[in-house]
Amino acid sequence: MSEPRMPIPAPEDTYKGWLFKWTNYIKGYQRRWFVLSNGLLSYYRTQAEMRHTCRGTINLATANIAVEDSCNFVISNGGTQTYHLKASSEVERQRWITALELAKAKASRMQLESDDSGDDSTPHAAGQSTGSRNSEVQSTLRTLGSKVEDLSTCNDLIAKHGSALQRSLSELEGVQLGGETSEKIRQVTERATLFRITSNAMINACRDFMTLAQTHSKRWQKALQSEREQRVRLEETLEQLAKQHNHLERAFRGATVLPSSQSNPAIDSKGPVPRKGDASDEDEENEFFDACEDVQEFITVPADPKYHRRSGSNVSGISNELGMDDGTTSLDEQSLASNPESPQSQELVPVRKRRTRIPDKPNYSLNLWSIMKNCIGKELSKIPMPVNFNEPLSMLQRLSEDLEYYELLDRAAKCQSSLEQMCYVAAFTVSSYSTTVHRTGKPFNPLLGETFELDRVQESGYRSLCEQVSHHPPAAAHHAISERGWTLRQEIALASKFRGKYLSIMPLGSIHCIFEKSTHHYTWKKVTTTVHNIIVGKLWIDQSGEIDVVNHKTGDRCHLKFAPYSYFSRDVARKVTGVVTDKDGKAHYVLSGTWDEKMEYSRVMQSSRGGENGADGRQKTVYQTLKAKELWKKTPLPEGAENMYYFSTLALTLNELEEGVAPTDSRKRPDQRLMEQGRWEEANTEKQRLEEKQRTVRREREREANRAASPSEEGKESADGALIEDSISDSPLKSGHQDNYTPMWFERLVDPMTGEPTHIYKGGYWEAKEQGNWDSCPDIF
After folding, report:
1. Which residue would you say has higher pLDDT here, 189 or 86?
2. What DSSP letter does each residue of 665-716 carry, written as one string?
3. CA 724 to chain centre
4. Which class for 265: exposed (0-12), middle (13-18), buried (19 or more C-beta within 10 A)?
5. What does the record list as coiled-coil region(s) (predicted)?
6. Torsion of CA 332, 333, 336, 337, to 10 degrees
């Protein structure tokens, strides 16, 4: 970045430029953008930060300015704030010193005038001004001051030239001239007298205006200065509180060593924790959110001890006492926690050895704001970004990771009770988010027609297929079937918006799970994913929202609530709670846990209204439950995962080359493969080539569709073809598919359960794989 030219400033100019500021002994001098305006010296990390984040401000009215050497100088306001600054040259340093001295003199003078105006001149608006009003007042003051100076100059000139004119006329009257000339001189004298009278009147009016303007100027300046100082004090207080909170967290983490199962989730990787060396006053990069503490919708208390003394043979008796249905809820307390037919008790020997490592992620630095600043408000899929922000997996492969804990569905398929089965299905919906906790990299946007197969029949009993069925709006269809009696299908479209400080990703579409033996059909939707600290700080991910898992055959329902993360909440972070109810709304199980660690269930023995009032004033439901049992627990990440994009054991195998897959499979995508190998520059070039190829194919497909629809318009190029990359759909699933593309393995039908149009697997892929016949597949790579 070239250095801006810095002319010697006028006393009222706003002065800006780059200086080097001393931070600490580790980082030394750091380049910062300084702005001198209205007697205040502020600094920012970059020019872009001027719109949202000020790193520090010092009032020059009470500051001392000292020169150390040819390039260094110090600004201090008496001990609380001291800036050690260094310019790039002696000339530049002198320009800054001149500007600072002028600004200091002006600020001191204004402060003195403000003090002289007395306490009774405090404006009514001082306590009500906002940032926009301060800016408006400041602009008005500058304009008014300039006009006052112009009037003062005109006043002096009129007085000077008026006196000279009067003297000249007086001298002419004393000269003996002809009668006609004397008459002319007399007329000129009269007009000059009238001009002098008028000018005096104007001068008096200007003098009154100047007096009034100066009085109001003092009041406005005092109000503005008071508002600015109050804002600075508030910013400093908030910054100190945030740093104290951070220091307490670090001190606690350093002084306490707990087993991983007993560590405090609010401290142990439950939020953005500052890295070592980030303790300087300006280098705290974490963004702090003051979220409202989550209010639970219900309260759980231990059940009466008589329920715990009952044996397993008496459970049905308890069910009858509580009015439960024997056919659906007579459940042994231990059956959820230990299923003898669970896949965990079986010895599964893989037919092939899967890889356990990929090349380490290169340490390439790139400024995200330089790319994202022009993308605010756009969909994530419409933002062209280099692979530096990606992970070497496609969105289709990320979608297949939902099957990471497939054994939960295996257990659910063996359940005799629909409510027990609901608990497993609900745990499965939560488990799909456990792989996202550290995964801040963006997956590759699949190309239209791209596929991904995950064949784990011999190892885990299931196989799945994903296909990108639409590009604008982007949508992927997924179908998985297991030999153990379940089928999972979904069509997911992503509506994502970049909001400056965070990125919201809203998955649209329903997920279906059908069990072959019981014919139970479950549906649910996904919650919103939020990526925080996009601009400044360490990226971290949160999941928030509510999910309703519905059994359409029995009417059973599980309502899950993902609580948004809050620094100041006393509750566990990333918390998930849920209640399993039957078709009559009666609660049978309470689920609790976190979406990144584990889920537990507790059987409800009794429920009643009472306890504390909820947020809406209604009484909360109190559930008496048995002791909680573990339902699902996250598998630890493989060793060295922090250097491998935080991939899980399954994720490490997803991009592993396999024989016999379709030519459209994500494993064969060249830019993704190059990124995995650490050749990011080549990957960026290849990514641009593939995207341009896709645009060309799309335009050709649109031309063919136009010729088929309207022969008279043959050869007409629609502007939409060139601008299709910028189109935005707020509701991709409802807006219809605009690609004029027919998927290979899925067909668009109306879902009989939800009534929504969706893509359902039509068959043929696995047969084509057995035959090795991929002639009908498009050439997308």
Report:
1. 86
2. BGGG-HHHHHHHTT-HHHHHHHHHHHHHHHHHHHHHHHHHHHHHH-GGGTT-
3. 25
4. middle
5. 217-251
6. -130
Work out the pLDDT band at 231, boundaries 50, 70, 90: confident
Residue type, 687: K
Which residues does 555 contact at the CB level (< 8 Å), separation at least 6? 582, 583
Tens-digit pLDDT profile for residues 49-60: 887 778 888 888
Rounded CA-CA distance 415/682 in Å is 51
- CA dist., res. 605 & res. 589, Å (int): 9
Structure confidence by residue, pLDDT tens digits, 386-427: 888 899 999 999 999 999 999 999 999 999 999 999 999 999
Q: How many CA atoms lie less than 13 Å away from 579 in the CB half-sphere?
A: 19
- pLDDT score of 506 more than 80: yes
* CA–CA gap between residue 287 and residue 292 (Å, rounded): 16
Note whether 380 and 494 are within 8 A (CB). yes
Using 50, 70 and 90 to split pLDDT, how confident is the model at 307?
low
- Count helices and strands (H / E) in the chain: 17, 27
Using an 8 Å Cβ cutoff, are 654 and 454 in contact?
Answer: yes
Q: Which of 253-262, 452-461, 519-528 has the lowest mean pLDDT?
A: 253-262
Beta strand spans in 570-638 (E): 575-581, 587-594, 598-613, 619-625, 629-633
CA dihedral 688, 691, 693, 697 (to 10 degrees): -170
Torsion over CA of 252, 257, 259 and 262, rounded to 10 degrees? -30
205-219, 533-547, 638-652: segment of lowest average pLDDT = 205-219
| For range 739-743, the mean pLDDT | 81
d(CA 293, CA 563): 9
Q: What share of the chain is helix, strand, coil (3-state, %, to 5)?
A: 40, 25, 35
Average pLDDT over residues 546-571: 90
Q: How far is CA 661 from CA 207, 453, 468, in A?
A: 89, 7, 16
Q: Is 66 helix (H, G, I), strand (E, B) or coil?
A: strand
Closest C-alpha to 90, from 70, 65, 69, 67: 70
Q: How far apart are CA 710 and CA 118, in angstroms?
A: 81
Residue ranges in 117-178 assigned as alpha helix (H): 131-173
**Banded pLDDT at 124 (limits 50, 70, 90):** very low
Of the candidates 37, 34, 43, the one whose C-alpha atom is nearest the C-alpha of residue 4 is 34
